Each structure stands twice: as C-alpha cells, then as structure tokens.
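Cross-posted from the bioinformatics board.
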Amino acid sequence: MTRWAMVADLRRCVGCQTCTAACKHANATPPGVQWRRVLDMEFGEFPDVQRVFVPVGCQHCDEPPCLDVCPTTATRKRADGIVTIDYDLCIGCAYCAVACPYQARYKTERRSFAYGRASEHEQARFDPDRLAVATKCTFCVDRIDAGLARGQTPGVDPEATPACVNACIAEALSFGDADDPESRVSRLLETHQHFRMHEELGTGPGFHYLWDRADDAPPPPGEDSR
Amino acid sequence: MSPYPTDLADAARSAPATPPSTRGDEAGAGTAAPVRRVPTFCYQCVAGPDLLTVKVEDGVATEVEPNFCAAEVHPGGGKVCVKAFGLIQKTYNPNRVLAPMKRTNPRKGRDEDPGFVEISWDEAMSTIAGRLNSLRAEGLLDASGYPRLAASFGGGGTPQFYMGTFPAFLAAWGPVDMGFGSGQGVKCYHSEHLYGELWHRAFIVAADTPSCNYLISCGNNIEAAGGVVGVWRHSKARVRGIKRVQVEPHLSVTGACSAQWVPIRPKTDAAFLYALIHVMLHEAPREQLDLPHLARHTNSPYLVGPHGYFLRDRASRKPLVWDEDAGRAAAHDAPGVREALGARVQVDAIEIGADDEVLAEGLLDGQTAFDRLVAHMAPYTPEWAEGICDVPAATMRRIAREYLDHACVGQTVEIDGRRMPYRPVAVTLGKTVNNGWGGYDCCWARTLLATLVGALEVPGGTIGTTVRLVRPMAERHDSVKPGPDGFMDYPFNPTSRADWSARPNIRNAYKTLVPLTGNNAWAQALGPTHFSWMFLDETPKGLPKVEPPDVWFVYRTNPAISFWDTPGVGEKIARFPFVVAFAYTRDESNHYADILLPDATDLEGLQLLRLAATKYQEQFWDHEGFALRQPAVAARGQARDFTDICTELAQRCGLLERYNAAINRGTCGVALKGEHGDFSLEPSRPHTREAIWDAACKAASAELSDGAEVLGLDWWKAHGFKTRPFPRERWYLYPTLVERGLRFEMPYQERLQRVGEELGRRLHECGMHWWDRQLGEYQALPPWKDFPALWEQRVVALGGQPADYPFWLVTARSMQYAWGGNAGVQLMREVAGNVAGHGGVVMNPAAAARLGIEDGDRVEIATPQRATHGQVVLRQGIRPDTLLLVGQFDHWITPLAKDFGMPSLNALAEMSLELTDATGSGADLVRVRVRKAPGRGAP
C-alpha cells in the first residue's frame, strides 16, 4: 500500500511563506485562499516566550471529518490517503469547512483577482469550477499522478512532488510514502520525535510534525556541508 | 545527493555547446511549444541571486519555480525566495506605468497632481537628451563644484543587476552625484561595511554557518535578511546542533528559530559584548584564548607609547614588539622574533602621532597593546553591563563561557587539502547594532571576540563576504596587499595637510568627512547619504553650498518612503528641477518626476550577471560563474529594455564611443576583451541589446573555460547559467594573510586614531567644528559611551521630556518585502500577512494594558514633533519598553500599498547631525510615546 504523507520539521521552518506563495502559483488559488500556509504562533509570557512557525493545510486524514459530513459524496478519500473533492458533486454547503478541525477548507463565492479585474495570467488560469464549492490542498495530486505515470517518485522527483515541498527553502517540508520504510518521510519519522495535530480527535492526519531528534537516532540522511 | 535530475545541471556545469533539445519544451522538440520553462534569476534583494524558471503558457508567464538544474551548484539547494514568486504579478500588475509620460503641472508638491500624460519614446528621449546636452554645454559641475547630474538607486546595489548598460552610460558621462541616499547608511550594515573591510575585507560579516557550532547574533535577522542561502544553511546548522543565541529587543523570526532569545535593551549591545570580552580576559583561564594567534597574527604584541601611538624603531619606523627570547625590542617583522603578549618595558624608540609629528623619542615607556586591552576592559564586568543592557549578569557570563568552550582553540581542520585553524564560533550584528552611534564599538567588539580565540577568517568562525571599497572587487584575496605596519593596505581618503579634500566631490561630502569610505564608485553611497538631503536646507560652514542637481535619475528606489524624514525628503525632491524616474508604478518619489520611463522589468529584460563566488550575506558558493536574466515574456506596453534605453541616450548625448568603450572594458560585469578572446563592440556605432549581451556571454564563457569555449547568447538563453568550481579554502582570508606576512589590525586602532586626529586638524584649519563629536569616535580602544542617552537628548532638543517618550521604536526586515520594491504586489501583501507584525505596531501586552490599549486598537505613535498612526498588534515577544514597526510602508500614492494603513518608522525618524556617527551612519531608532487614537483598525 501507499500512504502519502507530509512531514514538517518545526526546527527548520522560518515562517517565510515561500511554500504559501508556491502553492498559490501551482494551484492558481485566488487572493485570500491559501491551501498551504504557515502559522506564526507564540507561547509563554515575556520574557519566557517561544515563537514557532507551523505549516498547515489539509491534513489528508485517515478518518476525515469533512468526508463524514459531506451530503453529496463530493469529498472522498483515495486508497493512497489523499482526500479529494469532486467539484461537480460539491454543492457548496460548507458543512465540511465547519467540520474540519484544521480550518483547511475554503469556499470562494465569486471571481476575485489580485487587482480587481483579472490580469492576463489570472485569466489564463481561472477555473470557474472552483466557484461556490469547497477547495483545499490536494497534495498536488495531479503532479503525483502524472509523475507516477511517468515512473517518477513523489517526494524525490520535483515534477511529481507537491509544489510547497519543492519550494521550501529550509528543507522543512518533506513528502513521500509513509508506508515505504525507505522513503524520506519514513526515515524522518523513524529518527525523530513527532506529533500530529489534534491527534486526540482520532482523525489520523497524514501530516506529521517533527520537533526533535529521537534520543538514539543517528544523524539524518542526506546532509551535506553546504 | 540532490533529489533532482542532474542531467541539465551537468549540462549547465560542463557546458555542451548544443542546448538540450527538450529544454523548456513539454510539447516535444521541433514543434511549437505552448508551455516553456525559461531559466532566469531573481536579484530583488542583496541575498540573491536566486536561479529560477518561469513557466510560460501560450506566451503568458504563469508560475515561478526553483531552477532544479541549479540544485547541485547553488548553496541553497537551487531554491527560490518568496519574493521571486511575486514576479508574475509584478509583470502583469495593471498599475504599471507602461508608456513614457511627462508632467504637465509645473508645480511640484505632495498635494499637487503631476498631471502625467502619455508621450512617445521619441519625445521622452528628446526631452531628456536636450536637458543632458545643455548640462554638457554649460559644464558638468555646478558653481559649488558638485556634479549637476545625480542618480539614485536602491536595494543595496541590486538595481545594478537590472539596469543593463546604465553603468556604462554613467561612466561615459563623467562626474555623477550618486550620494542622494534612499536608506544607505541607516538601513544597511554600515559600520560593518567600513570597519569590516578595514579589518578583514568583509563588506558583510557572516558566520561560517556550515561549520559553525556557536553563534552569538546581536540583532542579525538572518532568517529574514539572509535569503535562501541563509535560511537553508541555518536550517541545516540547527538540525546539526548549532546553538544560536539571539540578542535583540524583540523576538524576530530569527529569534524564533534560535536556541535562546536574550531580550536586550535597544542600543546597549556594545555593553553586552564588552561584558563578554571582560569575562574572557579577566575571568576565564588565559589559555582558553588563542595566545599564539594573538602574538603572531595580530597587533596585540605591538608596544604602545605614552601618547597612545605605537613605539617604533627609530631608523625603520616599524612598530616594535618585545622579543621574549632575546629580551629586547625588535621590529614586528624581524625574523625569528618571539613576541611577548604582555610586557611593560622601557625601550629606545620613537613615537609618531598625526601628521608625522614626533611625540616622543629616546628611552620610552612601552606596554603591549594586549596589556592595554586587558586594562581597558577591566571595568566592563557583567554586573556593570546588567544595569545597562537589562540582561542578567549570569546570562552574559554563561554566554561568554559557552563561546569559549565551543571555540576549539588549538584545533585544525583540512579544507581543500590545506590545514587551517578550526574555530566554530561566530558573532554577527544586525543593522541597528551596526548603524549609528555604537556601531564602531560593536564592530570592534565583535571582531575582537573572534580575534581573541583565533576565529577570524577561519573555518567555523566569523568571516567576510565580498569587498566593495577595496579593489579588486571580484576577489577578496587579491585585495590583500601589504600596507603600513604589517597590516593590510586600506584606501583611506587622505587626511594629510597636502592631500585632504577640502572641497567635496559630491554633496554628502564623504571624501571630506569619512576617510574610511575610500573613493571608488561605491564610496558615494557609503558616506553620510542623508547629508545630501539635509544640506539642501542648510549647508554647514566650510562646505560649498549644496543645491539640487540639475537632472536626477531615480531607478528602483523610493527614497520618499525608504529613507528617514519621509515628508522632508519628498519636499526636497519637489525642489529638483528635472527628475527622470524609471517607473514601475507611480510612487511617492516619482510623484515629483518630470518624465516617467517604463523599463522592462524582471521577467522582461536581458542581462548577464556574475555569480558568486562570495557575495553579500551568506552567499559563499563552492562554484562561481555567470547567470542570464532573459525575457520570459515580451515587454508589456511600451516598456523598453534598459540597455536599449541607455544606448539611445548615449547616442543622443554624443557619448556613444565612450559608452561602448565602457562596456568593452567591463563596466557592465565582464570585460569584453581579455586573455581569452576579444569580443569587443565596434565603438562608433550603436548595438542592440542582443549584440551587447551576446558579446558579454561569449567573454564570460571564455573566462570560465580559460578560453576553451565561446558560448553565445543562444546557449545562455537555453541554459540560464554556467559555473565552475570555486575552492572553499578561498572563503577564508587567514591563510592569505599568513602567506603574505600580514597581521590582523586588532585589537589596537592606532591607525584610526591617527586618521581621526588628522581629520580633526584639517577640519579645524577650515573653521569646521560641527563634526567634533564624530571625531571623538576615532579611538584606539573605544570605551563604552552612554549611547541610549543620545536619543534621549534628542527628545529634549526637540522640545520634549524623555519620560514622556518612554518607548524605543525599532524596525525589522520583512523577508517578503526587504529590498524588493514590491509593496505594490498583492501576493506579497497576502503572504506577509501570515507573519506577525505586518499589520501594525507590535507592542508588549503588559505595556499596552498599562495604557489601556488592546489588541487591534488604533494608536498614535509620536515624537515631540511628529506623529503617525496604526493598529496595535499585541505580542509577548517584545520588551515592554519597545515598539516594533516591520518593514517600510506608509505609502500614499503607490497603488495597493497606499491602502495598507501601515505606519512606518521612517516618518518619525529625523535626519540629524547629532545622531550621525563618524562613519556617516545613523540608527533606525526613535524615542516615542504611544496612546490610543480615535477609531479602531486600519484607517
């Protein structure tokens, strides 16, 4: 089996929002819609304060709350763990947006563009199917599927990898098959202490957060001296 | 190993003469390609260039992606900064100026509508050339001797990577005043530029992050300002286990990613650093210092005489050291000498002060510079500093000891087959620490911290990047030439009676006032660039009266937003008789322009750029080469490539031969004639941009391959870049100094002391006493001064009481905007909104509560003379006595940005002689009060 998963290393992320911008490019989302974004969080009280940057988006849950509430079966989960939305079936009721504990879903009622009227590049990529329906991070499923068809490996070959991962300038985001023990995400999870967001809800997110090296872990693979 | 395909990377590195047939053609070779990926670069900020590709669908640019082919050679994995993702919107922004325009309202003022109307390129160029030709006919200098043509650029020198052949036009023209600043000196790392180049050829000082294990960062916001390479390297270093201690008044994004945040009181960093030095010199075991290094490779053993100058051999006039083996004094470079680090002796010597004056001669008391240093630092205990910095003494003591414990004194490492000292500790400084009063003291203390453990310019330590003031610019090591007294040479502006420049060559008087700037083209922007603006109101005694330039070119900068006293700058630009603005959109500076010219922007223009090998910020590469910026899409509207504009202007001004000659000799980045070929342009006729950059491409590829390959523009368009390996050992200057028998000019600043004394004499001889406070900064061993008090005194001078203005207003770089000139790009506004502080003034909740202020409240932030307004953002990560305004906003005409409602420190900060230090720099710091204002939220 394959279970596509995202890993975010909180030690690495600097909150630069390059992933946010790259996602907007790759998916041509309208202003204000950020399928991938990075939260800027603070804990504690001056002077004992910690500030942490946390990439978020659809967690592609094992048990997606959004799926259960969808009255039209527009939201589905693939065998590889990717949660999808069929825009033809979606009626825009937004139950899913309410049900999602990760605030990952967006609904855009009308055409909106960066400067009011559509610029040339926005015109070229505008998709009317996305109006008045739920949208969210797809794990760049089109890239994954097309890449697999070409014999490429998502998380390794850029053409088959989610745009946010390709763009990350801190190597904070990794993507791959969590069921493949040799994948980068599996090795990261094996060698690090990690958690999933709102794990207590039983959603089984496919998005993992690293926060420290496992006590007995060897140095991470693939480090070079740059 | 890189996860990316390497075939194209290999192609780019090894340079096959035939472009790969599938490159950028998803529809297949030989067919019309509806989708292309065009390799180019982004250099919107000093942390570039980022090599990228632009996806072009049916002629429309749709996506920016990393150039995965560059992953193997780029020190940041070939990734691309967030700012580059704004380039698509930047291209298609409907607010662009897309045709030449002229002003129809002769009255200039903020409230005057310029009445811009569209004109033809021919009319625009005729008008400009007419003005310029009039200048040439009347004389290039005005009655005061200042250039009548002025030009201002922003972005820390990065406009150079977009202005095509404009440098050649300016070179052909003759004298140009490039000293009207747009933030230089107050928004950069100013003191570091000057002292860094003096001490270790470090225009920018950085940690050797790939090898460093312990980093003390005083306000250096590297995660926001270091670009892709900075973020990439520090991320790796964190995972590897580096401990970074971030010392700053607010918890920046860099502080957030650091092992520890030390919330220091603003402008007290020198006291903090002095306390660390005190612990190292007075509390730690002496053997934890690199004693052999101090004795052999610094001026620590030089004997200092009773007047504070080196004791010298009477015949050779070389500085003396005490030879421990021989038990007598010897010249510092005497063969076989074993220098004593500590000695108080009487020696037969001469002591020479300013203007070659003999201060003493005969049997003189001497003490080593190191002993003087030890005594000098004795008062600066952590307990002393605690009261100044508001940092616990125990914290400083622990940091000093951790620094020593991590220094690995005595250890070595092999780099490229060469054994070098290994000292994985570093200290970096941020801009407000570097700038203005206290900048010298902090730079000196930082360099001393490295020197004491031998961590300057060695693997793991504190190292320099590019040189800009010392020549040659392309290679730091070649600039290491023997100077006086066993140190590197440095091109001080003369201070001798015979050669001092009493009449400035440009309006900011850098050559007259700031010996450290040197006198090349970069020096103009590294003097007191705010003086160009200030002196328009009142030129101080002794300087020729400053009048506006007859013609001012302004490109990729908006000083009416990015400098201080923004209302004042705008009012002064309004006095300029003829302003030519290369205009992306309307903005607060080109509001006063007479002509607006639309140049081809980032994704539309053509230019070759020299890549690496060591550049600004943390741009140390293991490769060097060139990259091409090329049109991904056709220029929109009537926008024209900058090179074509320059060629036409040169022709209309009768400068074509000189312009072509400047291009030929390498003014635009690569000499067209060299040992590997002659690709020179025929000088008497105009050349297209393609012809010019084709020649540059050929010369560049010949240079890279030692003449083996000559690759024209077509090859570079297909591949985007070409590199060759650059040895890592060249990152470090230490081996070159040792090879050339030179010492680091640390810790004792005898030369600066002499220069300052001479400068003071020259100024006083001309009746100029208004620079006396600045002259006081030329000290061989700088003592702590109460820097915060200088800002409190300004409150009094402006008619207020310090207690009524209890907050320090500071600013911080925004990675999404810094240097980018992209405030009008919606995508940047949107994504930056996820980072705290982009929506208003950041304030500590406890401090706010005491004033009855809640999150989101609209407040007035005021000095005794000025006020601005904004929305409060409450965050725990800021000192209660500090307010933070991120970035530089407060736009009032730039489309989109004018609706942000975001205040700016620049509107409150004054340009002040009193707050200008000896290097001509000022700090981004204002004492303010804050109180609730009517209304809630953005205006």
